[in-house]
Amino acid sequence: MKKSSATYLILMSTGALLFPGIALAQQQSGESASVEDSQDISGADQNVIIVTARGREEDLQSVPLDITAFNAEALEEKSIDTLDDIARFTPGLTFETLDGAGGAPTIRGISQIAQFNREQTTAVFYDNIYLPRSYLFDATTEGLARVEVVKGPQSSRFGRNAFAGAINYIPKKANLRGFSAEGFMTYGSDERFDIGGNVNLTVIPDMLAIFGSYAHTEFDGSWTNDHPQANFGFSPGTNGNVGGRNNESWSVGFIFRPAPSLTIETSYFDGEIRDEANATRYNTVNGPTGIGNCGTLGADGFPRLFCGPLPEPADTVVVEPRGFGRQVNTEIVRTAVTYEVSDNVTASYLFGRIQADSVTAFQSESDPVNCGGILNPAVFGAFLCNFQASPLGSVDYDSHEARISYQGDNGLTLALGGYYLDGTDINFFISASVPALNTLDPSEFAPLNLIPVQSPFSSPLDPERFRNFVARIEETKTETKAIFAEASYAFNDGRTRISAEGRYTWEEISTENTLRNFTVGNSPQTFKFLTPRFTVEHDATPDTLVYASVARGAKAGGFNAGAFDTEVAGNFDPEFNWTYEVGLKNTLFNRRLTLNIAAFYTDWSDQQLRVRDPTNPGGPGNFIQAITTNVGNAEVYGIEGSAAFQFDNGFSIDGNAAYISSKFAAGAIDPLAGEQGQDPDIDGNFLPRSPEFTAALGVQYDGDINPETSYFVRLDGNYQSKQFADPTNNVISPGRTLVNARVGLKYKSFSIDAWAKNVFDKKYAAAANFIYQTPPSNNFLGTIFGERRMFGVTARFKY
């Protein structure tokens, strides 16, 4: 879309924010005054949004935190299916899908530089159960009661690695309201087919209820794959278009209330993700077929770097069909017990278990048909297609949290608790190079998961053995202990409140390189850190809340199991930030008009960046890998807001906008760039994958045909400015504007919606990576493309 269109969208969104009395964008439909009753809203409570970000049920407008929340109806009306969609409607949040890993969410410009690291800068939870790997983050929103995005460091409340903020998926679950049932079905373009539903049954009134849900989704992908064998049907692999999925999940649970003061909830979730490879393009940068246009010349006489905007996407892509994206199996067990000791004291306990395993294989060849761009054909005697698998492995985590809370009549609120987590993470990195399909007879075609993989250390190397090898197997065990406390006091007739909260964490981490059968040097190691938060808030009027806070965020350190000399380069330290925030929340005219704005500054120190292993001499058998080390600092500041206005005539307008400056500060270096003949000092550069401007604008009309029949029409636009794909700021991902539309008809408990996403079929880069290779090997530029235009029809009933 033309630049003028993007500018217009920003101006309109900003105008919506400044319009007097504008309401929170994300909550057109609102939620009820209790979590258990979150789907039963009416009357004056229609736009009350209840969140649990501070461990208790609170009206969003009364919480001195910058939170964006979506209930089930908002997710449906805005056509939100994935975390990428959530990001488009959340100021200060961006998300990029990555091959295999699932993607890296970025809150307020605090981007994850080491994208495949075990720990991320944004913590993600499923019903307050920590999800320890990025391949678990991007799940379907079907079956969710609510999504909460809490911005700013939340380490004092959420703990593990809520360094920039936290995302919490809250599913629909058992309640004591009686019998209810819901079903849905979707048919759409590119073989889209979804089906599922849920049932809640009260077995004993006011005492026992059970719940079950099921969801299945199929999709062929929106990009045409021009590979000659695209329709062969590899499993796992791609078939037909690229970027498709075939996912399935189910859950069961119950709520038991044997006494009015005691509530027990238990649930079990089982999910399978079967993603195809993404729509991608990998370009060789240097060499006679490369796209290099800047930087020093390599030994071949060609530039080793690329500078400027990414090349425009073509109408189709060429992706090797043996590659596949996430193949993830997940099981989550959750038990929550709440006991009301008295009118003022509540005790609670939360247990969570998550077990998951993931397999992935993606290709980064610049010529996916003939291959040979990564492994030299002159050395290996054939044109081989290289596939990489990482992260690949499994997680097994148990967590326990106990809390006791006091709500006094004198304005004093107290909370005290403890947290314990014990988990094992096993991660592989596999490199497999197999003959190109055009050199094989179809009878020799085989999926990658049938190819034997060997260790390069198990026997003397030869070309055949070196084709398919395990470069790394690491097993990391984490034991986290934490105590946390919170105190809040209200005075000035309750209009002014001050609070202090904090968490002290002991985190013992040990990593073993099981491929080489040794424990990484300096392992195990215990990291200790205190993460406080201080807040002052004031009700300037009954409709206006003003707040200010200062908080410390912490992200755990760890170990480089793939380092050649782990005694020297085996570990890295935690990174920290201090964030200062002021905010304003306005609610007017019976909650039809609100305005939320927050401004913030973050001082980020000891940043974890990726460097080439300085201890690895290279040569036969020594696979050179990047490692993580603390060589960076950054400063981030910005302003963001969400707004909407509900007219009396059925029209509503909502919008959000954010400006964020996220830059490396003094002391930040990029040694990988230094290897390419560039200045490694990146002080003043923008962090990768951190756009300066984002904005969204939505318009909706709700009308009635008769007392039993209603309809709505909705149009949404989203804008994201350019961003950089690498710390040197050489590679630019251009900005984009996307438009969605939805129209729905509802008769009693039945509804049918027609929808379209990316209405104008914008072709754009959703993510990009510059892949540094040790000279004289070629550098690569990898681009992952966003979804093309999609449309469909969704039918739903609720009883």
TrEMBL record:
Q: Point out the signal peptide segment.
A: 1-25
Give every TonB-dependent receptor-like beta-barrel domain span: 367-759
> Which ranges carry the TonB-dependent receptor plug domain?
60-166
Q: Which UniProt keywords apply?
A: Cell outer membrane, Ion transport, Iron, Iron transport, Membrane, Receptor, Signal, TonB box, Transmembrane, Transmembrane beta strand, Transport
Membrane topology classification? Multi-pass membrane protein
Subcellular location, record wording: Cell outer membrane
InterPro entries the UniProt entry points to: Beta-barrel_TonB, Beta-barrel_TonB_sf, Plug_dom, TonB-dep_rcpt-like
- Give the family per the record: Belongs to the TonB-dependent receptor family.
The protein here is known as TonB-dependent receptor
Organism of origin is: Parasphingorhabdus cellanae
